[in-house]
Design a protein that fits this description.
The complex is a heterodimer of chains A (308) and B (313). Chain A is an all-alpha fold. Chain A has 13 helices and 2 strands; from the N terminus they run αββαααααααααααα. A two-stranded antiparallel sheet of chain A has the order 1-2. The chains are: A mainly alpha (308), B mainly alpha (313). The interface between A and B is large, with 103 and 108 residues. Chain B: It is found in: Cell membrane. Chain B: Pfam families: BPD_transp_1.
Chain lengths: 308, 313
């Protein structure tokens, strides 16, 4: 993300007043950073570090913290709520990531042209992403309503006799959530892809055309390779956001029916804030963090190998 | 990933410049050929097809909004009908007057507005100050510190919400706006976004101002801030919308009804009166309207902000 962070040269060395100047710079730099840093330190950095430590402690709202080593993790791996939530989260990610990515790319390619009024289409497709989540969830819940909801009426009209029960069925609740989230997110990733597409030099396409490449060949041999950095970023962002999915599920299905859509972050909330099991919930947090980190690092490695 | 906005700019420049070998561009060809070549005829047809596809696509994607608006103007028993009525038989405008008395909607709106304004102001102010420190003042440890900032952006918020909650409980701040303000106003995201922008402002400008005798604070206030209006607008809009739409923060911290935001109020209304379809949709429309207005005013800053930072926060 910030490859150019450290490339700035150190302050030039001129004279003896140097050290004083450096001290002054440090002071000035810190006064700029401090207002934000105090809040950041107290409410982000310390909690992040605390989450690590807590996961090795037994601490509930009724007892003092006590070091218990890996006990929380043993309990977690033996609990089927954890495995169900993990499985659901993975299923959600497997649906959400490829679908959003593919649709975002298709939309970006459709919208990457100089046409009158193209801006309107871009803006319209982007809008769901910043619409309030509660409104989105509520509307889609009604669209999905099994008996007389518009979606099932449409499915009936195109000849599907037994349309799914969506959010009231434990098999179809997750697909319903995925459809809603894809609809909501794709406009955002479309913007990222648009930026990527616009950075591809037109000369590349012209050269390919001169060489007689078909539209399909140009897509595979020019567009896709040129978009690799964007795709890398999109996949990482999408995967991370999939594993963090929380509010959409809470509002749309609240994890149900049964436990069919319960995800990891919801479990963290229930155990930690709902039931006050601070240590145990932090252990689940750590697993969530490790998954997100692993996926990111893995993507990064794959990306690096491709570039070589 | 850092410089998408620049790439965007660069492409536009490249498009405008003639090709290096002096070959005529598509633009030139179009100008010189008075008659339409078959190729251009084909292009025109292609454009019409693309317009058609886009219109169908956008209408399909807008169905949830269309349905929301139409349902908000119906009687309850008209909402889920077979077949679907896209235009209400008769417009029940009273939904929009009744909702204010059915639930304390005005209070919810005020709470949301209060939180969004305070958090946005603090985030923009502290974010741009810190970004100046991180990009224009050189001192030891600066880059390590910045890495710590960026590192926490990668940690899912859910992973540390429990320690945050314990902390707020100990400070006695649960069930108050202050908890949310403290948690959301000092985000690393704002610093990151502003720094990305400040890196594109040449250091020579600051040097010149220094030689002219401006202090660092003066440079920040009188040189950098005026230059970074687009980035400030991006950050302000993104923060405002995020705060307005936030559900989990208020859900965890605000328990008493009088503190609820629009999102919480709407959710609880749905929970209590799940058969009041029309009124629920009315509430949804009202909760989206402020976002729509802000988005229409500042959409270009949203898109720029995303292209610059690659993330929303």
């Amino acid at each position: 993300m910030t490859t150019e962070t450290i490339t700035q040269a150190p302050a030039p060395v001129h004279s003896r007043g140097n050290r004083k100047q450096a001290r002054r710079n440090t002071l000035i730099g810190w006064t700029f950073i401090l207002p934000n840093f105090l809040g950041f330190l107290a409410f982000t950095l310390i909690p992040v570090v605390a989450a690590f430590a807590l996961s090795f402690m037994e601490w509930t709202s009724f007892s003092a913290p006590k070091w218990v080593g890996l006990a929380n993790f043993e309990r977690m791996f033996a609990s089927d709520s954890f495995w169900i939530a993990l499985r659901n989260t993975v299923v959600y990610a497997l649906g959400h990531v490829p679908l959003t990515m593919a649709l975002a790319l298709i939309l970006a390619m459709l919208l990457n042209r100089k046409l009158k009024g193209i801006g309107f289409f871009r803006v319209a497709i982007f809008f769901p992403y910043i619409t309030s989540l509660v409104a989105v969830a509520v509307v889609w819940n009604m669209l999905f309503s099994p008996d007389s909801g518009p979606i099932n009426q449409f499915l009936g009209a195109i000849g599907i006799a037994n349309p799914p029960g969506w959010t009231s069925s434990s098999d179809w609740a997750m697909p319903a959530v995925i459809i809603t989230s894809v609809w909501r997110d794709m406009g955002y990733y479309m913007v990222l892809y648009l930026a990527g597409l616009q950075a591809i030099p037109t000369e590349l396409y012209e050269a390919a055309e001169v060489d007689g490449a078909s539209a399909w060949q140009r897509f595979w041999n020019v567009t896709i390779p040129s978009l690799r950095p964007t795709t890398f970023f999109v996949v990482v962002m999408l995967t991370v956001s999939s594993f963090k999915v929380f509010d959409l599920i809470v509002v749309m299905t609240n994890g149900g029916p049964g436990r069919s859509t319960t995800v990891l972050s919801q479990l963290i909330y229930q155990e930690g804030i709902g039931e006050g099991k601070f240590g145990y919930s932090s252990a689940i947090s750590l697993v969530l963090f490790i998954i997100v980190l692993t996926v990111t690092v893995l993507q990064f490695k794959i990306q690096q190998r491709r570039e070589r | 990933m850092t410089n998408m906005a620049e790439d965007l700019k660069a492409t536009h420049v490249r498009d405008a410049a003639p090709l290096p070998n002096g070959a005529p561009t598509a633009e030139d060809r179009r100008r010189t050929d008075r008659k339409r070549s078959p190729r251009e005829q084909k292009k025109r047809t292609a454009n019409i097809v693309i317009y058609g596809v886009l219109v169908v696509l956008v209408v399909a994607l807008m169905v949830p909004f269309i349905w929301m608006l139409s349902s908000s103007l119906k009687e309850n028993n008209q909402v889920l009908t077979v077949p679907i009525q896209w235009i209400p038989q008769e417009f029940v405008w009273s939904n929009y007057t009744d909702i204010w008395t059915r639930i304390p909607m005005m209070g919810y709106l005020q709470n949301s507005l209060y939180l969004a304004v305070i958090i946005t102001c603090l985030q923009v102010l502290t974010g741009s100050l810190a970004a100046y420190g991180f990009s224009k003042v050189r001192f030891p440890g600066r880059d390590v510190l910045f890495l710590a900032y960026v590192g926490t952006i990668a940690v899912p918020w859910q992973a540390y919400m429990v320690p945050q909650y314990i902390m707020m409980q100990n400070l006695g701040l649960t069930n108050s706006f202050n908890a949310l303000i403290l948690l959301q106003a000092f985000g690393a995201f704002g610093v990151f976004l502003m720094r990305q922008y400040y890196m594109t402002i040449p250091d020579e400008l600051c040097e010149a101002a220094r030689i002219d005798g401006l202090s660092e604070y003066g440079i920040w206030a009188r040189v950098i801030l005026p230059l970074s209006k687009p980035a400030l607008a991006s950050l302000a809009l993104l923060t405002f919308v995020n705060t307005w739409n936030d559900y989990m923060g208020p859900f965890i911290y605000l328990t008493s009804n009088r503190l609820w935001t629009v999102q919480l109020g709407l959710r609880s209304f749905v929970g209590q009166f799940d058969a009041e379809y029309a009124m629920i949709m009315t509430g949804s429309v009202i909760s989206v309207i402020p976002i729509l207005i802000i988005f229409l005013i500042g959409q270009r800053y949203f898109i720029q902000g995303i292209a610059t930072s690659g993330m929303k926060g």
